[in-house]
Amino acid sequence: MGNWAKGAGAAFAVHAFTASGAVLGLLALQAASDRRFDAVFLWLGLALVVDGIDGTIARRVGVAERLPRYSGEILDLVVDFLTYVVVPAYVLVIAGIVPAVLIWPLAAAILVSSAFYFADTAMKTPDGGFRGFPAIWNVAVFLLLVFGLPPLANAGIIAGLVVATFAPFVFVHPFRVVRFRPVTIAVLALWMLAASLSVAAGLAPPLWVTVVLALTTAYLGLIGLALRAPVR
Q1: For residues 60-85, b (16+ Cβ closer than 10 Å) or e, as one string?
Q2: d(Cα 139, Cα 110) in Å, to the nearest integer?
Q3: With the CA atoms of 10, 68, 84 and 202 taken in that order, what torsion angle do they form, in degrees rounded to the nearest 10?
Q4: Residue 1 — very low, low, confident or very high, per pLDDT cuts 50/70/90?
Q5: Which SS3 state, helix, strand or coil, does residue 226 take?
Q6: Kind plus residue range of the DSSP H or E element containing 170
């Protein structure tokens, strides 16, 4: 009984760790309301780290077997919808990065398309990638703020990503997709470094950081197209 209780306690702690992402999302919302957008993406970055490692911890602890009442997958989706979708949509509403007349239509499109995506039972490919743009609006809005494109261009990009949510292309998961994984992980590490420097610079990094961020983003966004080609 004691070992079972310890195991269940460890499993509950892992679920609590996953749920802590919701707290980070709330802190990001508070920062957004104060228009401290660098702080927004600091909190969202920490939430992204939690989301990136909680699954590995859960599998090692055996959460699904020790505490089957609570679904880690559902819990993860609940937290992700807040940090990946709701908070970035709120930033879009108040940041003034798209034409004023398009703010609410685009925010609504983000929320509705993402809700469909999160409910899609076929969102993942057999090799662990994602079908279509995987509703990572935390990343998309962050990049728009850093790149500082004209509002109309930002609106076009957002509209394109909404459409891409339902597009039949593959978006790689850096750790789960085996093909090109070493290169993809290295590029991801470089992207994270550039993103961290951008946050530290108040979302106004030097040009070389912006260039690195743009090139690594292009690789991570487009490498999935290569996965559709047959291996020779």
Answers
A1: ebebeebbeeeebeebbeebbbbbbb
A2: 13
A3: 0
A4: very low
A5: helix
A6: strand 170-171
CA–CA separation, 164 vs 134, rounded Å?
9
Orientation angle between helical segments 2-33 and 72-80, nearest 10 degrees: 10
How large is the C-alpha radius of gyration of the chain? Answer: 18
Q: 83, 129, 146, 145: which is closest to 221 by C-alpha?
A: 129
Residue type (1 letter), 57: I
Give residue 114's identity as a one-letter amino acid code.
S
Closest CA to 44 of 173, 143, 138: 138
Residue 130, classed as helix, strand or coil, is strand
Q: Say whether 122 sits in a helix, a strand or coil.
A: coil
pLDDT digits (tens, 9 = 90+) for 63-85: 777 778 888 788 999 999 999 99
In the numeric block, which tokens belong to residue 141? 């809005």
pLDDT score of 197 = 97
Give the whole-angstrom CA distance, residue 70 versus residue 61: 14
pTM of the model: 0.90
The DSSP bridge pattern shows strands 130-131 and 170-171 to be antiparallel
